[in-house]
Amino acid sequence: MSSLRTRQQRRKSERAPGMLGGVRVPFAERAARDDVDHGVRKQQEMNWRYVSGLIVLGLTGLLIVFFATDLFYVRTVAVGGANYLDEGEVFRYAGIAETHIFWVNPQQVREDIIASSEVIADARVVVGWPPDMVQIYIEEREPQVIWVQDGVTALIDLQGRVLRYPPDDELLPDLLQVVSINTLTGPPGADVPIPEQAVAAAIQLRQLGRQEAVRYHPTKGLGFNESSWEVWLGTGTDMPNRLRIYEALRDNLLDRGITPSEINVADPEGAYYCGSIDSCYE
To answer: Which end of the chain is more exposed for a tag (fewer CB within 10 A), N or C?
Structure first.
C-alpha cells in the first residue's frame, strides 16, 4: 500500500507543466496571465464606453446648437449681381425669413424669386454655414427702351415688360425714349403690355444713330418729325430698309418741289405720302 502511494506521488510530481502558446507554462504563471488579460479587456471596454459617451454628448450638443439657438435661422441673405433690386427686396421674394437653414430648398427659393419680379431673369441660390448661410446671385433683365405713356415713364425690357419706374434723374442715356400718343390704354404695366415689335424697332433706331425721342402710334408704329412733316416707320426689325425707302421717297418728293405733311413707310411695299390731310399718294 505504501509503495502504491509512493508511485502516485512520483507520477503527480512528474506531470508536465501547462501549455500556453505552444510553450510550457507552469499553472501558477498561466493563472496570473489570465488575470492580466481580463484586466486589459475590462479597461478597453471602459475606454470605449467613455468614447461612446463623449460622442453622444457631442451630438446632443450639436442638436441643441442647431435647433435650440437662433444661429441657424435665416434672418438675412447675401445678394450678388443686383443693380436695380436691393437686398431687402430679394430677401422678401425668397420667402425664407425665420426658416431654419436645414429646411431651405435652394431650387424652390430660386423659383419663388423668379416668379416674384419681372426684373429677375434668373437666380442661383447657395446654402452654406453662418455667417452667410444663404447666398443669392441675381441675373437681372436689362432695360432696352424708355417708354412714356399716359404720363408714366418706365424702363422696358426686350419682351416689352416693365422693369421699374425710374425718376427722371435716373433715366439711362444709352436708351431711346419712346412716347406713346395712344393715351387711352393707361400707363404701362402688367395690364398694359408694350408691343415687343415696337421695342425691337426702337432698339434698331438707336443702333442706327437715332438719339432724339420718337413717338409710337398703335397702327403707324414708331415715328418722328423731320422738318415740317411726320415720318412713320412701323415696327419690327426692318428699320434699316425702311429708313432707306423713306430717304429715297423724301428726296424724290423734294426734287419734284413737293413738301409732304406725312411720309409713311409702316408697310415698305405700300409706302405713301400725304400732301395734306385729305390727299395721300403711294
So the answer is: N
